[in-house]
Amino acid sequence: MAERLASSASLLPSAASPSSSTRRAAVASGLRLRPSPSRFSQAARRARGGAGAAGVVPRLRAVRCMAASEAAQLKSAREDIKEILKTTYCHPILVRLGWHDSGTYDKNIEEWPQRGGADGSLRFDPELSHGANAGLTNALKLIQPIKDKYPGITYADLFQLASATAIEEAGGPKLPMKYGRVDIAAPEQCPPEGRLPDAGPRIPAEHLREVFYRMGLDDKEIVALSGAHTLGRSCPDRSGWGKPETKYTKDGPGEPGGQSWTAEWLKFDNSYFKDIKEQRDQELLVLPTDAALFDDPSFKVYAEKYAEDQGAFFKDYAEAHAKLSNLGAKFDPPEGFSLDEDKGAVATEEKVVADPAPTSDTNGAGPQPEPFVAAKYSYKKRELSDTMKQKIRAEYEGLGGSPNKPMKSNYFLNIMIVIAGLAFLTSLTGN
Fold first, then answer.
1. What contacts 243, CB < 8 A, 6 or more positions away?
2. What are the pLDDT digits (tens) for 238-290?
3. DSSP code of 287?
4. What parts of the chain have a pLDDT lower than 50?
5. Annotation says 91 is catalytic
6. Is residue 390 helix, strand or coil?
7. Which residue among 100, 130, 229, 321 is the active-site one?
8. Do 81 and 185 belong to one domain?
9. Angle at the Cα of 330 from the Cα atoms of 324 and 334, rounded to 5 degrees
10. Which residues contact 240 (CB under 8 A, 6 or more apart)?
11. For the chain, how many structural domains are there in total?
12. Looking at the domain assignment, is residue 38 inside a domain?
């Protein structure tokens, strides 16, 4: 990505977390705590009819799962990030921090962490000193106090949380993020330099494809992600691109200077695409890789669409950003978890897990319950209508029967008496 300049900022004070040492140790080691079968399991078996030849049910046990990061601490960290954004206007550099940590991913390498990606490696000097990461030390200074305050979260999650929060707080779309990324442990595990995009390559469109295709992204995602240049400024003393200042940047907010892609460079919208298309304002920055979005026929389809339809841009950007943030990441739990949905919103929770059902000697398969067939209970041998079958089944289940649990014979007799009475009344009404 092209260089972006963050404004100067006051750092938040560091504070100790009140979380217990046992919990933190479990988080650090990635342990999954599995209590032995409890009384809940026994009660569940009794509720299902017990374990016998007539009703074999899975054995249940409570399992406690511990993720790489604690959801509660991530939520609190998100609120702290919002406060920093309000006072330092550092949206662009936090977006860049998350992008550059995940953007080193190589889909052709299977091993973690050799494949690169969102693994927190950007906190180490060998990667932080890469030319494309100039200035990102300021982003680390901003969020390190948050990491110190919440030791139960990983750097990899914190980088992506900061990036997503900055987009949303700048007016962008809600991003479908997930968390639980695992950190690399040592500087030796950092990816090699040269995996991030260059702002001024010889053949811009070809270079963009070479870099983003290596990550597993397509043309639509390349254009959508480029739209994040609606935020931020480029500073010539860092990236070599842009003017020292323009009428849009000379007075800040934050540290003045640099050249922005849009007039309102702290607002996330589709102005980037509109301004490149119109090319009326010489005060705004257009890099070779930006111009390529309207010069290349395949890119142009999406760039034109986003210039006209901000809703389409927001939708595609949200999906592309979330995908980028997951590249190369190793998740614990493997499926990750969300901070905003009930399912998976809590990283540490008790789940009911079914043990494999005991097998019988019929080729290893346990006894299967007989499916409910209404015709089997027809009066004499006359087949019932579909409506009558549904009524019988409703009564059958309402009185405690189910396909897996036979009903007592007197229940069924009562049902048949009621059905017979209803049929008789229906016949009289019809006549």
1. 236, 258, 259, 285
2. 777 889 999 999 988 888 999 999 999 999 999 999 999 998 899 999 999 99
3. -
4. 1-65, 342-369, 371-382, 407, 409
5. no
6. helix
7. 100
8. yes
9. 105
10. 3, 199, 200
11. 2
12. no
